[in-house]
Automatic annotation (TrEMBL):
Keywords: Aminotransferase, Pyridoxal phosphate, Transferase
Classification via CDD domains: AHBA_syn (cd00616)
Descriptive protein name: DegT/DnrJ/EryC1/StrS family aminotransferase
Xref: Gene3D superfamilies: Aspartate Aminotransferase, domain 1, Type I PLP-dependent aspartate aminotransferase-like (Major domain)
Alphabetized Pfam families for the sequence: DegT_DnrJ_EryC1 (PF01041)
Superkingdom, natural source: Bacteria
PANTHER family: TRANSAMINASE, UDP-2-ACETAMIDO-2-DEOXY-3-OXO-D-GLUCURONATE AMINOTRANSFERASE
């Protein structure tokens, strides 16, 4: 038995994610939805796909939703819909999941990395502005860990330079941002020309497999994206564009309809866990809790603390020995990933992103984490900070 912290007693083992527990109360509804798809047997583009798209569009404030195969395809389709000239540059954060950059590279466009902010981890608007060249075609902003990047500054820069803004909203579905004082907040993913999301099972709204979607308020672009995601066809066997085969399975859409109804409650539950951690971990020596941008809500896809570079791996090991799992999202900045060496970046070019890779640690956060488990996690983190 690992030694337990002095301040509390552990209960059930803490997990990073507990999808079985999250599904348990709605399992009969999920099973009924699956049974219905089995009976109707319209497995591709069945009725649940359109119904889910409409319901998600309503939830996100009357936006067009185009379902697709996964969040990486969504980014690729978003870029395809911009019809950028060959050789165009697309600005991406130096600190994000690799898919953001991969979608650019796979289309033969050039990813241009830009620095992020040390507090919110979002794209640094000044760095974006400095990275713009005559070849820049688009900016992809990532709302990392569940909080919006500075959408006010980034939309202003995009507009000034006539660049498209794509929002990679795989981690922040349901988050909102207030673009200007006195204005009604808008949903993340619905501000730029195109927004994208992922329904990978561990995301805040996850399927039972892969899935993704695009958001746009422009009807013409929505139609084009629907065609691009379905072999570029305008009607069956008539292909006006070179597209992809990237559709959301009817089965996944049917399950996502059930899960979408739970999303507001699940988000509130994540926020309660975050509030507990905030209260318990504020002011601990050498540890920083996630910074909140007052203009944004935070849906806490991750609760990510930062500690000194020489302490991070020790903290992770300390937690592991005491039964608390944690993850480093992400250990390598995008500009230093081996596959992207051809871009010619060197260590030291994006010091904030590089430092974050050595100092971040994401703690367990999910809607079914119990009070006792939260208390155990925060007590264990506190013990580390006091003894180390
Ligand atoms: C998960 C994720 C993606 C990719 O989504 P998939 O559905 O796994 O392809 C893209 N960007 C970010 C920021 C993500 O977290």
């Amino acid at each position: 038995m690992p030694p337990s912290p002095t301040s509390t007693v552990s209960t059930a083992p803490v997990q990073l994610l507990d999808l079985a527990a999250q599904h348990a109360p709605i399992q009969p509804e999920i099973e009924a939805a699956i049974q219905q798809v089995l009976r109707e047997a319209a497995f591709i583009q069945g009725p649940a796909v359109g119904e889910f798209a409409r319901e998600l569009g309503d939830y996100l404030g009357q936006t067009q939703v185009i379902p697709c195969g996964n969040g990486t395809d969504a980014l690729q389709l978003a870029l395809m819909s911009l019809r950028l000239p060959a050789g165009s540059e697309v600005i991406v954060p130096a600190f994000t999941y690799v898919a953001t950059m991969e979608a650019v590279a796979v289309l033969g466009l050039r990813p241009v990395c830009a620095e992020v902010l040390p507090d919110t981890f979002g794209l640094d608007p000044a760095a974006v502005e400095a990275a713009i060249t005559p070849r820049t075609g688009a900016i992809i902003v990532v709302h990392l860990f569940g909080q919006c990047a500075d959408l006010a500054a980034l939309t202003r820069i995009a507009r000034q330079h006539r660049l498209a803004l794509i929002e990679d909203n795989a981690q922040a579905i349901g988050a909102t941002f207030q673009l200007a004082a006195g204005e009604t907040p808008v949903f993340a993913g619905t501000v730029g020309e195109v927004g994208t999301t992922s329904f990978f099972p561990s995301k805040n709204l996850g399927a039972l497999g892969d899935g993704g979607a695009l958001f746009t308020r422009d009807e013409a672009r929505a139609t084009y994206l629907r065609q691009l995601a379905n072999h570029g066809q305008t009607r069956k066997y008539y292909h006006e564009h070179i597209g992809l085969n990237s559709r959301l399975d009817t089965l996944q859409a049917a399950v996502l309809r059930v899960k979408l109804r739970q999303l507001p409650a699940w988000t509130a539950a994540r926020q309660r866990v975050a509030a507990h951690y905030d209260a318990a971990l504020t002011g601990l020596p050498g540890l920083y809790i996630p910074t909140r941008d007052p203009r944004s809500t935070h849906v806490f896809h991750q609760y990510t603390v930062t500690v000194a570079v020489e302490k991070r791996d020790q903290l992770q090991a300390f937690l592991r020995e005491r039964g608390v799992p944690s993850v480093v999202y992400y250990p390598v900045p995008t500009h230093l990933q081996p596959a992207y060496q051809y871009l010619g970046y060197q260590p030291g070019q994006f010091p904030v992103a590089e430092t974050l890779c050595g100092t971040v640690l994401s703690l367990p956060i999910h809607p079914t984490l119990t009070e006792a488990q939260m208390a155990y996690v925060s007590a264990t983190v506190s013990d580390f900070c006091r003894v180390s």
